[in-house]
Each structure stands twice: as structure tokens, then as C-alpha cells.
Write a structure and sequence with these properties.
Blueprint lengths: L1 H13 L8 E4 L5 H14 L3 E4 L13 H4 L11 H14 L6 E4 L5 H10 L3 E3 L2 H6 L2 H15 L2
Parallel strand pairs: 1-2, 2-3, 3-4
């Protein structure tokens, strides 16, 4: 089970001269009960945090052709934005903000990054937004986050 696996990883990690942070990356497709179980796993294994979220297999909100909607595999980018933020918000609130969360999923603009932070993300990870917008999006996001932090 997940607790046994993460406990073994933690034990091995802590035997090292310089242990590395251990984070659990989760899917956006988990139910609230499953997310609560993830919080329990993190608390029991003392891992360093959660990466929320990985790709989704959900296809409900797609406006693509039937052929594309029926494809297998995980989706990333814009179709993931709202659900990823919901998961971050739920995890943050349900853990009383005690578990570091790296917000991932559908960060296509500086505003998307701010929404992840407002939801409770300690850090963000960018991929699809970087691919579609190029390196300049990193500067835009950093500036927006700094402005947001200064105005709080």
C-alpha cells in the first residue's frame, strides 16, 4: 500500500547523508474522500508535501471532436486549470494549511498562477503554459506574484 511504499522511501532517504524532499504527486480525478486519505498518508509518513495535480483522464469539459475526446491518456493544460485549483483549495483547507502544496495543472497565465497561490499552493510548477507561451511567461508570472505579495 501507499503508506508502506512511502515509509520505505522515507527510511531509505533518511539514511542518506543529504536526504531529499519527498513529495507525492496526485491526480485531479480523486474524490474528496480520497484526498482526505492522501492527507492522512502524508501525515503518517511525514513526507514533505503534495504536488497537486498530475494529468487528468477526465474528458467532460472538452470541446474537441468525438475522436479526440475518446483518446486515452492524461490531459494537461487548460482543461485542468479549474479542477487543479479546486484540489489545491480542498487539500489546503482540509490540512489546515500544514502540508506544503506545489500547485500544478493548467497554469496558462499569470492569473492562473495567482489562483493556485490563493487556493493554498506554496509553490507552482509550470509546463503547458511554458510550452504554449514561451519563456516570457515565467517573467510575467514572477512579476504578478511579486505584485500580489506586495499588495497583501
Amino acid at each position: 500500500n501507499l503508506i508502506s511504499l512511502l515509509s520505505a522511501i522515507q527510511k531509505n532517504n533518511h539514511s542518506k547523508k543529504k536526504p531529499k524532499p519527498i513529495l507525492l504527486k496526485i491526480a485531479p480525478d480523486l474524490s474528496n474522500d480520497q484526498l482526505l486519505s492522501i492527507i492522512d498518508v502524508v501525515n503518517q509518513t511525514f513526507i514533505d508535501g503534495i504536488i497537486a495535480t498530475n494529468t487528468t483522464v477526465e474528458r467532460k469539459s472538452l470541446k474537441s471532436s468525438e475522436t479526440l475526446i475518446k483518446e486515452q491518456g492524461g490531459l494537461s493544460g487548460a482543461p485542468l486549470t479549474n479542477r487543479s485549483t479546486e484540489v489545491i483549495r480542498f487539500l489546503h483547507k482540509s490540512s489546515n494549511g500544514k502540508i506544503p502544496i506545489i500547485g500544478v495543472g493548467g497554469i496558462m497565465s499569470p492569473n492562473d498562477a495567482i489562483e493556485k497561490i490563493k487556493a493554498g499552493a506554496s509553490l507552482i510548477q509550470l509546463y503547458s503554459g511554458f510550452v504554449y507561451s514561451g519563456p516570457s511567461i515565467v517573467r510575467q508570472i514572477n512579476k504578478t506574484i511579486l505584485d500580489f505579495r506586495l499588495n497583501q
